Amino acid sequence: MSASEKARAKAEQAVGKAAQAAGHATGNEKLIAKGRAAQAAGKARESKESLKDTGQC
Hints:
Mean pLDDT: 91
Radius of gyration: 13 Å
Low-confidence stretches: none
Order of helices and strands: HH
Oligomer: single chain
């Protein structure tokens, strides 16, 4: 996994986690959903890059 893509995936997950927490704190369902979506996108990016590293892609 390239270092920049790994960092991007982790950052996306962190932003999503923060957004989700803020949504829970304020009771904002849209923000919770956006946070979950950002976390999922980060995890998907991380999985894609891991597959590239193993040569299965």
